[in-house]
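retry 2 of 3: previous attempt timed out while embedding fe (iii) ion. Reduced batch size to 1 and resubmitted. Inputs unchanged:
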Amino acid sequence: MATLIGGLGTSHVPAIGGAIHKGLQQEPYWKPFFDGYPPVQTWLQEKRPDVVVMFYNDHGLNFFLDKMPTFAVGAAAQYNNADEGWGIPTLPPFQGEVDLSWHLINHLVQQNFDITTCQEMLVDHACTLPLKLFWPQGDCPVTVVPICINTVQFPLPHARRVYALGRAVGEAIASWGSNKKVAVIASGGLSHQLEGERAGFLNKAFDLQFMESLVSNPEWATQYTNHELVAKAGSQGIELLMWLAMRASLVAGDGFGVRKVHSHYHIPISNTAAGLIALEKVF
Ligand code: DHB
Ligand code: FE
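retry 2 succeeded.
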């Protein structure tokens, strides 16, 4: 059976793609952000996952407001990036892991998740940036199964439902008939709001409590409605639902819990509180 080694959470901000492209990692604005990543890169070099399951939210590149699945699972051999208009480079295609995609899809439907299955799927900055941040050198060494959770158009799935999805994804990974190693990534959050009267809103106290809860009390955030989460984290801070799905995936299968490998928090990057966490599954 496949091995689920652990989970990673990171914020995604398009400007990060520009900073990487221009080599600005050591500039005063960017250094405190990029300095968070080497310990996680080192951990990944030691653990060497073969496959990544990526919880992320599309921002209008693949799914627009006219058709918005609540949960969508990629089942493509290859995922193309495309220009979103942020002025950052379009990346070469990422390789899929079709066998795991279909195993996941079958398991999720059996568990009563009415997902959308995508045999073609453009991936935006939310899917591409974590791969660049975690594997900055050369070609991406992992294959990818993207799982998109709607956090852009209400109604959004409740945190409790997202947690259940993550758990089911973890069960599916643990029962995948493969000798490959899998890591789960969450892309999104933490607190930020890009529009309206509260544009620029950040909530450090809430973010740090949320990150801590992922280690010691993973269901903590499921007590909140989405309106409460938006009030606490901002209208885009609701992207933290991805982190919840990632954490829930680590509950499933063999193993007793998680060990925090590393975490980092820096505000702001653009309008966003940039969080990072790496959790290793303990067997
Ligand atoms: C920003 C943050 C996001 O999560 C996003 O998807 C786009 C932009 C920002 O802070 O600029
Ligand atoms: Fe976003």
